Amino acid sequence: VSFQLTDLTRGTMTEFHQKLRQQHEDSMHRELETLLNTANKAEAETSRKDFEGFKKLFHRFLQVKGPSIEWAKINRPPEDSIQPYDRIRAKGLPENISSCLNKLAVVKLNGGLGTSMGCKGPKSLISVRNENTFLDLTVKQIEHLNTTYNANVPLVLMNSFNTDEDTKKILQKYKHHQVHIHTFNQSRYPRVNKESLLPIAKSMGVSGENAEAWYPPGHGDIYASFHNSGLLDRLISDGKEYVFVSNIDNLGATVDLFILQHLMSQPADRRCEFIMEVTDKTRADVKGGTLIQYEDHLRLLEIAQVPKPHVDEFKSVTKFKIFNTNNLWISLPAIKRLQEQNAMDLEIIVNPKTLDGGLNVIQLETAVGAAIKSFNNALGVNVPRSRFLPVKTSSDLLLVMSNLYSLDAGSLTMSKKREFPTTPHVKLGSSFTKVQDFLTRFENIPDMLELDHLTVSGDVTFGKNVSLKGTVIIIANHGDRIDIPAGAVLENKIVSGNLRILDH
Q1: Of 38, 41, 391, 501, which has the most beta carbons under 10 Å away?
Q2: Domain ranges (residues) in the chain
Q3: Where does 265-412 have alpha helices with state H?
Q4: Which residues have a catalytic role annotated?
Q5: How far apart are CA 104 and CA 149, in angstroms?
Q6: Is 219 annotated as a binding residue?
Q7: In whole angstroms, what is the distance from residue 379 CA to residue 31 CA?
Q8: 22 known ligand binder
Q9: Reduced to 3 DSSP states, what percent helix, strand and coil does the chain have, rounded to the nearest 5?
Q10: Which residues pair with 489 in a beta bridge?
């Protein structure tokens, strides 16, 4: 009897959960309709498309419980599914590389703000090198490609409602450059109260009490918003076949002609629809997503999908040796096909946030690379570390502003004068977090050609023409200040205590 009872209880529980899910979904749909009624006509049309996408995501969020990955089913990708870059490079380039370039568009993910670096406005407008912003460098790179190969590679920026207005104002200055620039907007999704699972927005407005009510739903949204904007169809009708997608703050993500040629030279029945550039993991990259073989497909495994007991294993450099750089090459017709069949099944990333007032909300997001499993003949390419040069912090900024890199036609390359190709490990303390503060602490950027490791903590400033070599650790305790004098050479030194240099 007891056996039957538990079965009944289980059935009733499942039924109960289904009803509960249905209730949540109905309430959500009602709230979204109410919100749409507060919008003007033009806005309502865009927002309705956004909300359709959000409803699908919310529906899946209610269905899914726990990590979507069964750890035991994870396998290393087969040998031929991740190609070494050298093998692709060895094939060389054809005479007509410009006809390949004419079938390419470059997409930069430009939805992020510079807040983590203490800057207002879009992150892409922060100056990184010789007064050039991320956006300036990107435009220069593509312009250089177009002029060198007499090609027409357009630049496409995926903006968010946070960055769109400011970015469009700046685009005026590239009017006379040899590069066509298009923009489209990422969706705008409602943040959801963690307890009630309802939107916290009171209306469709983005200011005042609604300032924190919305979010751009991660870069996995590129497929839907690219398709919804009409730009995808327009590029296909212009004869474009592939897009090269990357984060605008990755200064290593330049158009690589060898990878492009590899894509274009595949036989028609085995066209590769998706290439993900991966690179070898170092201790600094333990959180990066990795490629796995799962149920006969290449899949991107992100740290958020890993069951708690396996997180340390995921972070190990031995089992998972590579990580995703988020430099992706994707077939445009394939995006169109999958979007129209509603066949992109992107894992949901649930991102919990606590707002300023203490309210707990959740953001449902997806990642662009997670779609790899839906594309045919997808491939990983293990590229050199130089193709992954993200600027996330002021420590990264110090590296790219220094003489470790030389700038040529918008591209940064490791200086020939550096003896070994690894990037130094730089950790600047909290006094350097904001770009403004960072800039006031360096009279000019130190020589770092022979640096391996730099740690700076506390109130520290650097005079002109300082040279840092080997391992340098500078620690000013609370209340102390250290001014590194102009022209100082620090090689394998630890500096602590108090040193003030004042103008007399």
Answers
A1: 391
A2: 71-387, 394-496
A3: 311-315, 332-340, 394-401
A4: 392
A5: 13
A6: yes
A7: 42
A8: no
A9: 40, 25, 35
A10: 467
Pairing assessment for the beta strands 104-110 and 467-475 based on DSSP bridges: unpaired
Residue 123 annotated as lining a ligand binding site: yes
| Fold adopted by 394-496 | UDP N-Acetylglucosamine Acyltransferase; domain 1 (2.160.10)
Angle (CA) 165 166 170, round 5°: 115
DSSP string, 89-152: HHT---TTHHHHHTTEEEEEEE--BSGGGT--SBGGGSEEETTEEHHHHHHHHHHHHHHHHT--
218 is in an annotated binding site: yes
Which residue(s) pair with 496 in the sheet? 475
Amino acid at 35: L
Whether 136 has a binding-site annotation, put simply, is no
Name residue, tokens 């993991």. 281
Q: Is 392 known to sit in a ligand binding site?
A: yes
The order of strands in the sheet holding 349-354 is: 192-193, 360-365, 349-354
CB 476 within 8 A of CB 460: yes
Structure tokens at 133: 């912003």
Q: Which amino acid is at 77?
A: P
When computed from its CA atoms, the radius of gyration of the chain, rounded to whole angstroms, is: 25
Cβ atoms of 44 and 188 closer than 8 Å: no
d(CA 227, CA 334): 11
What's the topology of domain 71-387?
A: Spore Coat Polysaccharide Biosynthesis Protein SpsA; Chain A (3.90.550)
Query: In this structure, what are the phi and psi dihedrals at residue 148, rounded to the nearest 5 degrees?
Result: -65, -45
Do domains 71-387 and 394-496 share one topology? The answer is no
pTM: 0.92
Please give the chain's pLDDT, 504 residues, in tens: 445 555 556 667 778 888 989 999 999 999 999 999 998 888 888 899 999 999 999 999 998 766 567 888 888 888 889 999 999 999 999 888 999 999 999 999 999 999 889 889 999 999 999 899 999 999 999 999 999 999 999 999 999 999 999 999 999 999 999 999 999 999 999 999 999 999 999 999 888 888 899 999 989 999 999 999 999 999 999 999 999 999 999 999 999 999 999 999 988 888 999 999 999 988 778 788 999 998 888 999 988 788 888 888 888 877 888 999 999 999 999 999 999 998 888 888 888 999 888 899 999 999 999 999 999 999 999 999 999 999 999 999 999 999 999 999 999 999 999 988 788 999 999 999 999 999 999 999 999 999 999 999 999 999 999 999 999 999 999 999 999 999 999 999 999 988 888 888
Angstrom distances, CA of residue 284 to CA of 128, 281, 339: 22, 8, 35
Interatomic CA distance for residues 63 and 364, integer angstroms? 13
DSSP 471: E
Q: How far apart are CA 486 and CA 484, in angstroms?
A: 7
